[in-house]
Amino acid sequence: MLTISRLAAHAGVTVRAVRHYHKIGLLPEPERDRSGYRTYDAAAVVRLIRIHTLADAGVPLARVQELLDAGPEEFAAGVQEVDKELRAEIRRLQETRRRLARLAAGEHLALPQGVVDYLDRLRGLGVEERYIEMERDAWIMIAAQVPDLIDAVIVKKHEELDDPDMVKLYSLLGGSLDWPADDPRFVEVADLLERLMIRAVEAGEVGDDGFDDQFVALMDSAVLQSAPGAARLLAILEERGWRGWTRIERVPADRLKTYLQPPS
After folding, report:
1. Domains and CATH numbers, the chain
2. Phi-psi region of 204 (alpha: psi -120 to 50; beta: other; left: phi over 0)
3. Model confidence pLDDT, tens digit, residues 246-264
4. Shortest CA distance to 227 belongs to which of 138, 107, 108, 157?
5. How far is residue 129's CA from residue 117's CA, in Å, rounded to a whole number?
6. pLDDT digit string (tens) for 166-180?
7. pTM of the predicted model as reported, rounded to 2 decimal places
């Protein structure tokens, strides 16, 4: 007869594991001898080895009992089912590892690959990292707001970077975070934006952007908080009949005078 420590040694497990198997009902607990010690026979060794073999192969302990009591056909089917579950878990873990690897670069957090590629393209154009981080945060909100539209939106943004005026605009905006409010370069930025918007209007590309008014207001406020010079740029655009930042709109000529008139 064997003590619990000898039983564990024969099966290649720890005494703690044996006690756990007792607790969950996988290994029947034997009678104790006159001294109060558990004693085990060869059948216990065989069962413990089978338990350990199944568990070591990746079978969840909750399924071990089922397989131990199964006939040959049921056992084979049970093993196949466990294998299917493990393969699904492996795929899930592999995807988790890929996501964790992508998170090493901060903008991968909550952003689709197309947006990440776009931000990398801005880096390639020499846009300052501080501005890219501000734009990254805006894209995170946009991706959450219109996940079904984000791919089409980002394709359009990539196309816009083929326009020399857009590239020049980004080169100016990248450094604008440190400009004083009276910096004359704000006028140059406004000129570029107005030129780009006029082309968009003429091409019929200005319309429903999929954002509700509350979200547009949130995005505009984020820009004003992150970029002190944004208020100056918006003021210049308003003087020329444009309003907004996230959704730049043309103010009708018959409303422009009223729009620009300060409140009494």
Report:
1. 4-102 (1.10.1660.10), 106-260 (no CATH)
2. left
3. 888 887 655 444 334 444 4
4. 138
5. 15
6. 999 998 888 888 888
7. 0.54
